[in-house]
Amino acid sequence: MSEPLVRLGLWLFRQIARLPDRWVRRIGFALGEVLWRLAPGRRKIALTNLALCFPERTPAERRAIAHGHFRCYAASFVERFILWHESAERICKLVRVVDKHHFDAHFGGPLIILAPHFVGLDAGGIRVQIESGGASMFANQKSRALTELMTRGRSRFKETRMFVRNDGLRPAIRALRDGLPFYFLPDMDLGPRDALFVPFFGVKCATVPSVARLAQITGARVVPLVTRMTDEGYEATFHPAWEDFPGDDLEAATRRMNAFIEQCVLTMPEQYLWTHRRFKTRPPGEPPVYRR
Predict the structure, then answer these.
(1) Helix, strand, coil % over all residues of the chain, rounded to 5
(2) SS3 of 93, please?
(3) Distance separating alpha carbons of residues 96 and 14, to the nearest angstrom
């Protein structure tokens, strides 16, 4: 898509975000229905992921989860324009924080906020940033306008440092040592470099052990934050800091991370990012799972 068309689309979503929350959500769900029909490639990726992770479920059950995911993902994308543009007061009404004492207990020292790829990841991250600032890592988008909007929208309240994934872990280490919470989304297939093949729903999955490495280097505590889309908005729930993490075994620590994410996925399967090619990188000798 050309950059002028992207800018036009971003402007349109900005206007939608000015509407009452209930109308923004309805428009997002409607967009999800359109994408479900018009994005067969992403639909196929989602169904492939679900078949790998939930072989015990029927094709109809997996298709229902994938369909629900398209609706939730599209709604969350439209609502990001509330998060990126609207007032802190409106965002705080949209996103409710639960069990923040788990975060407060370690705020000020090296702290990694582990945020799995659920549709509410921006809602939880920006809600925390309003009160506490922080740092995070992101990937450049194909559109320069979208990249600039995302960066600006995620860092417009308290002190925030945003850096590109290609920069490596050094900026994260500096931020952690400076006392900034690091909002980290590590559950993506970033290729074979530095990845460990650990199970995710019983399937070998290329997973970077960056959370464990950062915790080893900086002594950071790891506090998970899982954000759920609700009928009223979002609920960002902090979990207790992980004890005895990471230990001396990076692979065991990474397995532990994936096992935690699995348990969260089971509580809201339609909200996990199934359209990402999570199993793109295969162990040597294994065939690809995503076929054209």
Answers:
(1) 50, 15, 35
(2) helix
(3) 22
Angle at CA 288, nearest 5°, toward 284 and 292?
155
Q: Which residues contact 111 (CB under 8 A, 6 or more apart)?
A: 103, 176, 181, 182, 220, 221, 223
For 38-87, how does the pLDDT look when each residue is reduced to its tens digit (9 = 90+)? 999 999 999 999 999 999 999 999 999 999 999 999 999 999 999 999 99
Radius of gyration of the chain, Cα coordinates, nearest whole angstrom: 19
Cα–Cα distance measured from residue 174 to residue 151, given in angstroms and rounded to the nearest whole number: 19
β-pairing, 111-114 vs 221-229, is parallel
3-state secondary structure of 121: helix
∠ Cα 126 128 170 (to 5°):
85
3-class DSSP assignment, residue 133: coil
Pairing of the two strands 160-164 and 182-184: unpaired
The Cβ of residue 139 has, within 10 Å, a number of other Cβ atoms equal to 12
Q: List the chain domain ranges.
A: 3-271
What SS3 class is residue 131? Answer: helix
**Whole-number Å distance between alpha carbons of 40 and 206:** 25
pLDDT, residue 189, reads 86
**Do 83 and 128 meet the contact criterion of CB atoms below 8 Å apart?**
no
Convert the pLDDT of each residue in 228-261 to its tens digit.
999 999 999 999 999 999 999 999 999 999 999 9
pTM of the model: 0.93
The single-letter code of the amino acid at 74 is A
Q: Kindly report the CA angle at 94 between 231 and 225, in degrees rounded to 5?
A: 90
CA distances from 276 to 159, 160, 223 (A): 30, 27, 24
CATH for the stretch 3-271: 3.40.1130
